[in-house]
């Protein structure tokens, strides 16, 4: 486990449960995760965030793959199921949200230079395992509104540094497309009011990111 200066007894609890805890100042999501992979004692690693849990069905799938020494792939992805204010979202842009988290670190890792919305990749075949990775992303609505704003800024700065630019069309259409794609075309409405709020907030993230990119390319400060 990698701890970046938590103050809520996380380190003590993890050590009490038998985990090896390493301290490292936080300098980016991707970098932090790759550091953890580099410290692993074994070749195959399972990467989890603090707000994620392996479901019983996913555990069975992982153990079954391990029994064959993971011979069928260089990495495995699985669906991530997010809890959203008392209900698990099973439609829209929220699900199945496949993520590659189990892989042979000799053939892959957290690559690239993008520290936000980071993703692991491998050289070789990737298989999908049945079962869900349970995700508890937000404790309150206030937290959900603040977290995407911080991520939007980081993503806008990353895209600007790589030469990407916003247009008036994207400023208007991209948030609307994100909403309707998730809520209507991917059946987010089947999740009730939870699906509606989720789709709206995610569309607002796209709006914030595009506005910040627009400001940056026009020489304006965003913070």
Annotate the secondary structure layout.
Layout: E1 2-3, H1 10-16, E2 22-23, H2 29-38, E3 44-46, E4 52-54, H3 56-67, E5 75-84, E6 87-89, E7 99-104, E8 108-109, E9 121-122, E10 126-135, H4 141-161, H5 168-185, H6 192-217
Parallel strand pairs: 1-2, 5-10
Antiparallel strand pairs: 3-7, 4-10, 5-6, 5-7, 8-9
Helix pairs in contact: 4-6, 5-6
What does this 3D model show about the protein?
The chain has 223 residues and is an alpha+beta fold. Helix content is 42%, strand content 19%. Strands 3, 4, 5, 6, 7 and 10 form a six-stranded mixed sheet that branches. The protein has a two-stranded parallel sheet with strand order 1-2.
Distance between the termini: 32 Å
Distinct helical segment count: 6
Beta-strand proportion: 15-25%
- Basic shape: globular
Helix-strand string: EHEHEEHEEEEEEHHH
Low-confidence parts, pLDDT < 50 over ≥5 residues? none
Q: How many individual β-strands?
A: 10
Please outline the major beta sheet.
Answer: 6 strands, mixed
Helix content: 40-55%
Rg from C-alpha positions? 19 Å
Helix/strand/pairing category: alpha+beta
Number of domains: 2
Mean of residue pLDDT? Answer: 95
Could you list some keywords that capture this structure?
223 residues; 2 domains; 6-stranded mixed beta sheet; two-stranded parallel ribbon; 6 helices; 10 strands; 42% helix; alpha+beta
